[in-house]
Amino acid sequence: MRTVALNIVFGGARLDEAFDAVLRWELPAPETGSSWEWNGGTAEAAPVITSGVRPRWLDFRTGKLRWNEEIRSHREDGEIRFVLTDGDFAEFAGRWTFRTDGDDVAVRFEAGFDFGIPSMESLLDPIAATAVTATIARAVLGMVPRGRVEDGPEQDR
């Protein structure tokens, strides 16, 4: 299983503000926008969804990867966990973790995935790892006014 991680800083944010921003993260419909776009600029803020199944997708080469993931938020532990329910991955799971760091909130995104096609692993996994981390990195820019990726993506095999 390939794993990816990003360390993110929400500058000048409160812990609950950062937590809720991630829970509100909604992608535009695949037919209407790029997975890079943040869909938070609407007139009404998206509701905070603390658990349940959400559709997800991202741009992948010349098409889209699509899946549904079940999310569970654990505010008291500073975690949002997600796991694949169905879609283009054979396995996909991970978490967002949150902690106060001075006047900022440090956030870590971690995910593991597998397409379930061992013969294509060396080709597909690096492309998917880049697509996942790029989507998260770009989404962070719209979540809060001072969101930024602290360091580059980490990838393991």
Plain-language structure description:
It comes from Amycolatopsis rubida. This is Cyclase. It holds the Pfam family Polyketide_cyc. The protein has 157 residues and is α+β, with helices and mostly antiparallel strands. The protein has one domain (2-156): 2-Layer Sandwich (Alpha-D-Glucose-1,6-Bisphosphate, Chain A, domain 4). Helices cover 21% and strands 43% of the residues. It contains 2 helices and 8 strands, in the order βαβββββαββ. It has helices spanning 15-24, 121-143; strands spanning 2-10, 51-60, 63-74, 79-87, 91-101, 104-114, 147-149, 154-156. Strands 1, 2, 3, 4, 5, 6, 7 and 8 form an 8-stranded antiparallel sheet that branches. The longest helix has 23 residues, at 121-143. It starts with a strand and ends with a strand.
List the helices and strands and how they pair.
Blueprint: E1 2-10, H1 15-24, E2 51-60, E3 63-74, E4 79-87, E5 91-101, E6 104-114, H2 121-143, E7 147-149, E8 154-156
Antiparallel strand pairs: 1-6, 1-7, 1-8, 2-3, 3-4, 4-5, 5-6
Pfam families: Polyketide_cyc (PF03364)
Protein name: Cyclase
Domain Coenzyme Q-binding protein COQ10 START: 60-136
